[in-house]
Design brief:
This protein has 117 residues and is of the alpha+beta class. The chain has helices at residues 3-16, 47-62, 108-116; strands at residues 22-23, 37-40, 76-85, 90-98. The chain has a four-stranded antiparallel beta sheet.
Amino acid sequence: MTSQTFAVMVVLAAFSAAPGPVLAKGKPAEEGCKQKIEVPGFPHTLKSVAEINAVRNWTDAVMQHGDDYAQWHFARRTSVECKAIGKEGLIQCHAAGTPCIAKIKPSANVESAAGAN
């Protein structure tokens, strides 16, 4: 085992022992939303992959509220912050956001067009 492989294993072991999602404290959630959730992602050498890992972990953590909430693109006040960790070139990102249910309402034009047929 190389020293780099060992270092990656140590980082991953430390990450897997980290606490789960963090619920932000403060004001109550908005209507149709839950409290803000912040989670770390799995480290990677590519920032784009580390960002994807963080968002995927956020989605998994939000599943506790049901499938309707576990959609990153419907969440409010989302953020992904990344930083380099260790000396092996690994990057770890943290995703945060307020999970919300999509509130899609048909527009008046769609309703009137449907009724015209």
